[in-house]
């Protein structure tokens, strides 16, 4: 199996069920992982890999987040035995040594690459990992998905978005070019409620709108949220209880005086004239 780019991250949930997700180097699915752990009583194990599809095919992962070239299409890459959901398109970029003139701009026109030594154009993290140190020496530039370039770059390397225009004057503010997309993939034969809960999260399903029995059970176990009126009534009840405690539970009545001690009026009437 490929060497992981990051360590395994497991949730603190005590559930006995577990979901294992392998995700491509440079992708950023952390927000979906956090929401899953907040909503579902199950363990989540995630791992960043150069080849997450390999982990899925070998049974080492239950789902995979892949990077695929947009022009290729999933039908020619993924077998029909896999479900697939397109998550987003990736911005492409160019990496260069930090003193390069490209460091003055956030977006670079693709037309400027004609005057540069392009050492590598690739989506393969392994190839990019080997070539980026060469770019750091000033020998040339490297082109690929910007998320990978940023994830693998060291301090001596910077990157910028690559824009599909010829001149730099039209580059600023333009949308970055994209040649790859990120997909969520899992086997059809292994589809279950746990996987469907994660699918709902990546598709933007809100908390409380779950469609599975597992998700409904998790929602039912959470403390009920009070309405504005219920909060007001509860606050009033707490205040009433506090007043009762201060008054000794006597409804505001005066505490009786000490036994055998005459009142002030009685003491006055008993004085000699």
UniProtKB/TrEMBL annotation:
Domain called LysR substrate-binding: residue spans: 18-141
Annotated Basic and acidic residues bias: 217-233
Pfam families listed in its UniProt record: LysR_substrate (PF03466)
Basic residues bias spans: 264-273
Domain of life (superkingdom): Bacteria
Region ranges (Disordered): 205-273
Protein name per the record: LysR substrate-binding domain-containing protein
Organism of derivation: Corynebacterium lactis RW2-5
Source species taxonomy: Bacteria, Bacillati, Actinomycetota, Actinomycetes, Mycobacteriales
